[in-house]
Write a structure and sequence with these properties.
Elements: E1 2-4, H1 12-21, E2 26-30, E3 43-46, E4 57-61, H2 70-79, E5 83-87, H3 100-113, E6 118-124, H4 136-142, E7 144-147, E8 153-154, H5 159-171, E9 181-182, E10 188-189, H6 190-201, E11 206-209, H7 212-221, H8 226-238, H9 250-253, H10 260-266, H11 268-271
Parallel strand pairs: 1-2, 1-4, 2-3, 4-5, 5-6, 6-9, 7-11
Antiparallel strand pairs: 8-10
Helix pairs in contact: 1-5, 2-3, 6-10, 7-8
Amino acid sequence: MILISGATGHVGRPLVNELLAAGRKVRALSREPVGADLPAEVEVAATVDLPLDGIDSVFFVLAAFPGGSAEPIARMKAAGIRRIVALSSYSVLDDDPKNMIAVKHRELERHIRETGAEWTFLRPAGGFAATALEWAGQIRTEGVARFPFGDAWTAPVHERDIAAVAARALLTDELVGKTPLFSGPESLSYADRARIIGEVTGEPVRFAELTHDEARQEWLRAGIPPHAVEARLRIFAKLVGTPHEISPVDSYLGRPGLSFAQWVADHADTFRKGTS
């Protein structure tokens, strides 16, 4: 059986579906199991319980464990888990000690290596397409997307592509001991993202650039931890004016990566006026 942490998240849900389609048994972890709304054949458990009996492989998402990776990974080691596939970050390549996203994911990778289990560390580059959901409310009500760096370039990755690479790492031996780094298929500025959302939904979206202080306060109000807010501001500032390097996912999936326009089409109702 395969254990999926963060099973109700952006990557977890499509990964659950990939594994079910492959005929595998899945135990899904959720902070609120009663409202998980996962397929009936999925065994759902509370993240805090971390039940590992009968589990052979684990998909590990750091965000599912606010207390950090040390304790849950130690429990996996004690349980003799054979394989751990972790959603890491390409930021681990940044040795800036102020980049707490990088620091925490380097720590995650170290803890997993020390278990002696087979491992794969997924390192999506270019940002998650799903971060555009932060604009959903303001686009629905005002037709505006606010962000501090209109000319910051990224190559947003569709969560279904991340899930597909994770499934390959869990179901085959091809990615054992590897660190797949892949981006979305196109380099886009944040102003481009806003424009594409308008084009796909048929409801034009205006991009409004925030100052750094305005962005800081908005992100803090949204519940983003202060260290992550400051890391975001530093990271995005470095992306201004330079198209993002493309790291194709093709070699891992045998097909091109899904575009940002495809991602918007998959979530279009989230942005349209009169929806919630």
